């Protein structure tokens, strides 16, 4: 009886040792198939339940070991990391677009585009200042040619009459040239002719000096023609440009209040258009002031030459009058008139 019981126990143990490895392999395969699922990522899977056995045997421990060693590889599943790149791709794209639009806006802020986008009044101010600048340079070119020619002509005329002894010789040396010196000599001859028969030389010289002064003043007015316009442009252009700037900035602030934003991209174009008017004013005023000062010096030098011409004509008249005391009194005035 004891032998049959012992044989039954041995048979059960042998059956368990044969069946338990196959069960362990099936459990490990099932766990490996279930591991890649992203929803289930257990760190460690519990060991399979092994039915209680009446006796501890080495094959049973070996059956449990593969289950415990097979679980850790399944504990680190190849779960794909979260995709933050998809979330960050949109801000990068929007940043690139905003940078591109800002670059385009910066390229569009040229003087011509700002002029076209400016207010009507600011455009009128800029056009007026541009016209004033054109007038300034026109006067500069015209006056520089005129003053250089008249100075050269007057110096040559003074050199020709430097050795003349009388008014008639001086007029003969000059010829029929139209110059301020010819006008002074003609005035002296006319006064001597009109004063024929008058014995007072001082009166003749005084009247001739009065005629010379009128000719000098007329020549000064003629040579200063256009300089008053230069002075006006140089004095008023900055204020006209400032008026356009104030008007443009006022419109910019009105636009800011309507858009209800203080973004620099919204504020900058209007302020730039307003400041462009001030730039136009300075462009018109600075050359006008410089050219006016230059012509003031050149005109002063030319008027000194005119004064020398007046003195030369007065000296020639005085010589003719003094010669009358040597000859007969009746022919003195007639010779001076000749």
Explain what the structure shows.
- This protein is mainly α.
- It folds into 2 domains: 74 residues, no CATH class; 227 residues, no CATH class.
- It starts with a helix and ends with a helix.
Number of β-strand runs = 0
Average pLDDT = 73
Radius of gyration, Cα only, in angstroms?
56 Å
How many domains?
A: 2
How big a fraction of the residues is strand?
under 5%
N to C succession of SSEs = HHHHHHHHHHH
Largest sheet: none
Offer a few descriptive terms.
single chain; 338 residues; mainly alpha; 11 helices; rod-shaped; disordered C terminus
Summarize the structure.
The protein has about 350 residues and is mainly alpha-helical. The chain contains eleven helices and no strands. It has helices at about 1-35, 60-75, 85-110, 110-115, 120-160, 165-175, 180-195, 200-225, 225-260, 265-325, 330-335.
Walk me through the topology.
Elements: H1 2-34, H2 58-75, H3 84-108, H4 111-117, H5 120-160, H6 167-174, H7 180-194, H8 201-223, H9 227-259, H10 264-323, H11 329-337
């Amino acid at each position: 009886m004891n032998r049959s019981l012992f044989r039954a126990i041995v048979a059960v143990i042998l059956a368990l040792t044969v069946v338990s490895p196959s069960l362990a392999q099936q459990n490990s395969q099932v766990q490996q198939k279930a591991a890649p699922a992203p929803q289930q990522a257990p760190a460690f899977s519990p060991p399979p339940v092994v039915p209680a056995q009446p006796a501890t045997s080495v094959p049973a421990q070996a059956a449990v070991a593969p289950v415990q060693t097979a679980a850790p590889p399944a504990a680190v599943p190849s779960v794909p990391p979260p995709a933050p790149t998809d979330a960050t791709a949109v801000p990068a794209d929007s940043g690139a677009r905003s940078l591109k639009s800002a670059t385009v806006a910066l390229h569009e802020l040229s003087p011509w585009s700002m002029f076209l986008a400016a207010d009507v009044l600011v455009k009128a101010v800029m056009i007026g200042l541009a016209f004033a600048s054109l007038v300034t340079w026109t006067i500069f070119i015209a006056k520089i040619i005129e003053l250089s020619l008249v100075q050269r002509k007057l110096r040559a005329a003074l050199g020709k009459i430097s050795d003349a002894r009388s008014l008639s010789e001086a007029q003969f040396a000059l010829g029929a040239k139209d110059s301020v010196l010819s006008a002074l000599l003609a005035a002296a001859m006319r006064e001597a002719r009109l004063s024929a028969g008058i014995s007072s030389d001082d009166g003749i010289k005084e009247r001739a000096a009065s005629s010379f002064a009128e000719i000098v003043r007329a020549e000064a007015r003629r040579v200063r023609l256009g300089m008053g316009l230069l002075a006006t442009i140089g004095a008023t252009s900055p204020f006209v440009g400032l008026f356009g700037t104030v008007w443009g900035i006022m419109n910019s602030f009105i636009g800011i209040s309507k858009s209800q934003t203080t973004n620099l991209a919204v504020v900058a174009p209007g302020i730039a258009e307003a400041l462009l008017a001030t730039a136009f004013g300075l462009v018109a005023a600075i050359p006008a002031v410089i050219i006016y000062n230059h012509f003031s010096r050149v005109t002063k030098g030319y008027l000194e030459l005119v004064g020398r011409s007046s003195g030369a004509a007065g000296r020639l008249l005085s010589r003719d009058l003094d010669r009358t005391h040597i000859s007969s009194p009746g022919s003195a005035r007639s010779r001076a008139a000749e």
